[in-house]
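INFO batch 0412 | record 1 of 1 | parsing
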Amino acid sequence: MATKTIIVNDDLQQNYHYELSESSGSNFVDDFTPDLTPRQMLELGVFGGHYFEGHHAEYPKSWFEGAHLSDTHDPSQNYFDIDASQPREEWERKGWIHEQDPRGWFQWYCRYYMGRRTQDDARQIMRWKNMTRHVGQVESACQPGDELCRPRQRQALLHWAYDSRKI
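INFO prediction complete | emitting tokens
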């Protein structure tokens, strides 16, 4: 694949450039195996429908067909109809936000899925792997398929591309 340059101009990044060096949805690191694509996550309902705050021109339009979107953070847009998010200020306080992806992990995942590879990939993939403890907690506390059991934790797992409906 020939590299493609993406240029981002929005309220959090001005004239930010990145390269897509891989084909969309392919050539992931071997131990990075998300259950859900960004499009599937948006269709299911994540981040109260407000993650990109209207700034999604850099992503394929098809990702937003059938997506649960809102002008404000609206937990009713989430699959489990519950708030499982922390505000960006908390993410920043904890040092989770890096300049290249000011909207956090999901922005990184969308760009990674599209084919961007950066030095931050290992850190973000480790953060994703750390969510497996929540998978284990849901599995040990809930009957398989009982979506009413631990809905906040299940919603948080959806935010990290784990399909918690299957637990």
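INFO post-check: The chain has a mean pLDDT of 94.
INFO record closed
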